[in-house]
Amino acid sequence: MNCLYLHGFASAFDPNNEKVKSLSKYFKVIPFSYDTSAPYEDNAAAILEKIDEEDVSLVVGCSLGGFYALDSMINPKVFGVALNPTFAPRKSLEKYIGSNQNFKTTKTEILTADVVESYPKFTSRHPNALIYIEKGDTVIDPVLSYKFFSSHVEVVQVDGGSHRFESLAQQMNKIINAYNTFHGV
Prior knowledge:
The protein is α/β, with parallel strands linked by helices.
């Protein structure tokens, strides 16, 4: 059972990340970083290619990675889990146009207005997903997020937390049950 974990904006895959550690107890987590300063189409293609190459059946993403996790549902064999996902990447990324320091690599990355404009509006293509929203998120408004996503897929609201989504370990049983149901296990 291969899992692809998709980090948020200006970050990179980190095997010591608590979310990756929680997922690794149940799934083989495939190391993968995408370039958050690259156009949407480039990242989406790279993610879908990795899903096919590694026979990924679960994609979990946080924030911008959550947008991509939901987008990866165009592959019908993939179950997606989005943690505090952005629902309007054009709007949420707009304030980062310019130079940004990657939180993990510490390298400078340049986000252009063209890259921000490359992001499409979210559209739910398949119902094979689960969205988690921690109510303590101060980056993406949890109330607006719930209103937006609840008409598309199942949304679980969790008290407390932050934008980093701190409660994944406590949510794993529900995720595994939903994953198993989707895959007929």
